[in-house]
Amino acid sequence: MARTTSAGGRKGGPVTLALVAQRAGVSTQTVSNALNSPELLAPATLKRVREALDELDYRPHQAARSLRTRSSRLIGYGVQPTPPGLSTPVSDHFLHALSDSADQAGYRILLFAAPLGADDEAERYDELLREHSVDGFVLSNTYRGDKRPGWLHKNAVPFIAFGRWSAKDTGDWVDVDGAHGTAAAVDHLVAAGHRKIAFLGWPRGSGVGDDRAGGWREAMRRHDLPIRDLRVSSVDDVDAARTAVARVVGRATAVVAASDTLALGCYRALRDAGLSPGRDVAVVGFDDSPAAGLLSPSLSSVRQPLDEVGRACTRILMARIKEPDSAPERVLLAPELIIRESSSAEPRP
What we know:
Blueprint lengths: L16 H8 L3 H9 L6 H14 L5 H8 L4 E6 L9 H16 L3 E6 L4 H13 L5 E4 L8 H7 L4 E4 L9 E5 L1 H14 L5 E5 L5 H16 L8 E3 L4 H8 L8 E4 L2 H13 L9 E5 L13 E4 L2 H17 L7 E4 L2 E3 L11
Helix pairs in contact: 1-2, 1-3, 5-12, 8-9, 10-11
């Protein structure tokens, strides 16, 4: 039962599911599904019920519903500390998309501080479960050797991973096809006339970094272009990238970077050499961070479909919570190349 209200012309009194159902012209079970399992309803029906809920200002009593369903309607999301000097636009955008899609499904995201140590983080998950605070978890920043998916799978805890590198054999995941993105960047540069295209990536060993490097390598081979001595590596730091990419400045007419941070380092290295990004050497980044469109020249970059990732994570996790023994679901989404000034000019002799 909800709180007393006078919304929609009523003169006080409790707002019940029956009253909402009458306003929406549906059954009380349909209203219950809208609150607890919205994915079961057709979009038009769900919209009509939600409008009735808003008009009557219906607010279900969360504690009572939790006791009835043995569900907290909370999803745990661990926030790891960010190294000094690094921004996290991808993580921030993903978290917003995840929170919005979870809200539409009737859930809330419970943020908790996630320590960097795998054992400590597992203890934190166990603590939340023992307190019955969450119905499942969303993992991000996954990596090869990540122990979180295995621990959650072993303990039959519903989870979804953003990133396929740690959960290939132990659960559901949603990921972005980084190889597709860097290959699209190479195709775009080749179409513009470039033949010496370098890759500025992260050190070998990370799933995400190797995936993006692999897309560049395969696309270069598909176009029968040389790759020897055209791949350089750096940690995700502007000054480190500036130093690393200097080794190919003067030999390459274009650079594909594994992140926008690395691309900014490339901008600085080119200017150190008296060259102009976009005019003398084309540059393409990855992630399409907010700064990409503000740089001069504006940076071409590969945009991850993070809104779609958030919706897919929520949908799959909801299904896992309801059907714990169903087959794992894996979704690989294609990113989009956003072309701007940094890659629009033809290569200079």
